[in-house]
Amino acid sequence: MARDDLTLTEFINSLPEEERVVLTLFFVKSYTIEEIASKIGVPERAVGAVLAAGRSRMSALFNFPSGS
Fold it and tell me: Which domains does the chain have, with CATH numbers?
């Protein structure tokens, strides 16, 4: 699939399960990092790392402004 044809939903659905769950809980369900960590049973720093990587990829792929 070409980069221009990729939607945000398709991007999220293409991710490995843990990343997909974390990004969905954070961006769609508006859970906090602490809530996500508790819900999926991983340390908060792991959730933060997944979010940082996901934000970076989304920013590059979808030309989101820095800090989004």
Answer: 3-62 (1.10.10.10)
